[in-house]
From TrEMBL:
One Pfam family hit: CASP_dom
Organism: Digitaria exilis
Source taxonomy: Eukaryota, Viridiplantae, Streptophyta, Embryophyta, Tracheophyta
Family: Belongs to the Casparian strip membrane proteins (CASP) family.
All residue ranges annotated as the Casparian strip membrane protein domain in the record: 38-186
Annotated compartments: Cell membrane
Identification of the protein by name: CASP-like protein
One cellular component term from this protein's GO annotations in UniProt: plasma membrane
Superkingdom, taxonomy of origin: Eukaryota
Its membrane topology: Multi-pass membrane protein
Subunit annotation: Homodimer and heterodimers.
InterPro entries recorded: CASP/CASPL, CASP_dom
Keywords, ordered alphabetically: Cell membrane, Membrane, Transmembrane, Transmembrane helix
Transmembrane stretches, start-end: 45-64, 85-102, 122-149, 170-200
């Protein structure tokens, strides 16, 4: 019995779970329960798929958004290309959708194969790309929301009129696209937190360290 207990204790010190609870190991002495690992993977996959769908929807709504009005026998069509902020938003959401699709495929392969992210350079690369994409989408949303507010409420000091009073359907569809872009950017922020968790858990504290 003493030999068995000593073997179990030695196995525990070497990072092997002697019990019947599955445990995933990261870093020098980091331990993450397998149930938590599965939840993290599922949450990351869901967030990346949701981000891809929302970004595609936002880009599609803006790309198809147009309305034609006639002013004194002159036909004027409003399109998203008339505002550089909306063009920037379409580009940003297109990039976010492609990036989320690639990362979602990586998460799916990891789930199906049972692989665990233990490479620190790869974790750093994912963390850096997620951070950049989150900041990129947030900046695009901020610029688009500012332009949308000017279009809806105008700007009296600069004598900018309320264009949404003339193109109500165009502004309504653009508002829906901006809302989808806001949701996608918030998802990217949460994803960046998940990637930070996946990265820094690889740096488990060793025995005797703080």
């Amino acid at each position: 019995m003493s030999q068995g207990g000593g073997a179990a204790a030695a196995a525990g010190e070497n990072g092997v779970s002697p019990g019947n609870v599955p445990v995933c190991y990261y870093g020098t002495a980091g331990r993450v329960p397998a149930a938590v690992e599965r939840r993290v993977r599922a949450a990351e996959l869901f967030l990346r798929c949701a981000t891809c769908g929302l970004a595609v929807l936002a880009a599609a709504l803006l790309s198809a958004d147009r309305q034609t009005r006639i002013f004194f026998s002159i036909e004027k069509e409003a399109r998203y290309t008339d505002m550089q902020s909306l063009v920037f938003l379409v580009i940003a959401n297109g990039m976010a959708a492609c990036y989320s699709l690639l990362q979602g495929a990586r998460c799916m392969v990891s789930i199906l194969t049972g692989g665990v992210l233990v490479s620190r350079p790869m974790a750093w690369a994912i963390f850096f790309c997620d951070q950049v994409m989150a900041y990129f989408t947030i900046s695009a949303v901020a610029v688009a929301m500012e332009a949308a507010m000017i279009g809806k409420y105008g700007n009296m000091p600069f004598q900018w009129m309320k264009t949404c009073q003339l193109y109500k359907r165009f502004c309504a569809q653009a508002g829906g696209a901006v809302a989808c872009a806001v949701a996608a950017s918030l998802n990217m922020v949460v994803i960046s937190l998940v990637s930070a968790f996946n990265l820094f858990r690889l740096y488990g504290s060793g025995k005797g360290s703080k």
